[in-house]
Design goal:
Helix content is 20%, strand content 32%. The protein is α+β, with helices and mostly antiparallel strands and 154 residues long. The chain has a single domain, classed as ph1033 like fold. It has a six-stranded mixed beta sheet with strand order 2-5-4-3-1-6. A hairpin with a 6-residue loop joins strand 3 and strand 4. It is globular and about 45 Å long. It binds a DNA duplex (12 and 12 nucleotides) through loops.
Length: 154
DNA sequence: GCCAACGTTGGC
DNA sequence: GCCAACGTTGGC
């Protein structure tokens, strides 16, 4: 099993959307960065993904979801009405990928970025580097475990 | 709202 | 291939 962290703006999409539909797989779409897209494509069934809330009141890790369907062409890239529409993408050579994920757990409290920065296990993680804009980040099991342990201590 | 850091675009 | 200009991200 692999571990990941994926950023989202909770005003748009959040761990609570998953928690409200705990048995339903939801599509993680709208990724429009090549490196993040490549990581999305690397996700395997049942991989664990930490959901990170950015650009909001409570910035940090909010919960866990799991991959239920591996990468497939992100339909929003073909939809002119979507904010994620990409006119340069074609059905034969789609640029962008989506994966489906399902709820696993919501933390009692969001584990704040400030706390993440204190975890020595995350020293080399782009998440805590200023200016990092990578929205899908691979985590080692050590990083993942450190975050879970820190969240459960709160 | 500000602004630094970053990724992408496009002219050359 | 270079790099300036631009638009976006994201913490504060």
């Amino acid at each position: 099993m692999n571990y990941w962290l994926a950023k989202t703006e909770p005003d748009e999409f959040s761990i609570y959307d998953f928690a409200n539909l705990p048995t339903t797989a939801l599509r993680w779409d709208g990724v429009r960065n090549y490196q993040a897209r490549n990581y999305l494509a690397d996700m395997q069934l049942a991989d664990r993904v930490l959901v990170y809330h950015s650009s909001c009141k409570q910035i940090g890790v909010a919960g866990i979801v799991e991959v239920t369907k591996t990468a497939y062409p992100d339909p929003t890239q073909f939809d002119p009405a979507s904010v994620y529409y990409d006119p340069k993408s074609t059905k034969t050579t789609p640029r962008w990928q989506a994966v489906d994920m399902r709820f696993v757990e919501v933390f009692n409290e969001v584990l704040p970025l400030k706390s993440l920065k204190t975890l020595p296990e995350l020293n080399d993680c782009p998440l805590v580097k200023p200016g990092s804009r990578l929205s899908v980040i691979p985590l080692s099991s050590r990083m993942f475990d450190a975050i879970i342990a820190s969240a459960s201590r709160r």
